[in-house]
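Its record is set out here:
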Amino acid sequence: MMMQQVRMLGLAGFALLLAGCASPSTTHMIGQARAPVAPESVLVYVQEPEHYQAIALLTATSDGSWSLGDEAKMNAVLQRLKEAAAKVGANGVLLKATGERRDDSVHVGTGIGRYGGNVGIGLNIGKSFGLTDKTAEGVAIWVEP
């Protein structure tokens, strides 16, 4: 009986964790979508190309990427921008802004407990710390090859 309660509590916690995760990217259409392309074919531009068509506004974060270190987090963000652009048929992303966002805290802890008769005793030890995610905003664009 006790083991079933522990399992149910664990499953409920996992479900809440998944429900609390934000989407790592957003897309707002501002132009006509094209046929999807491979994300590997999407180029990132830091300056406006001479002739292009804007397709969508994109945002992305490194949240949930399991990337460690600033460079790895930014690579995850750029990959998410490329994937979002590829879905709407863009062959480029015009990078508009990058930044950092303080994420929710992570709580890590452990505890022990013992009971006998009508007496129970417990000890819990934990640590909380915040995480920083990388963010980026861009425009999904079509550049004539």
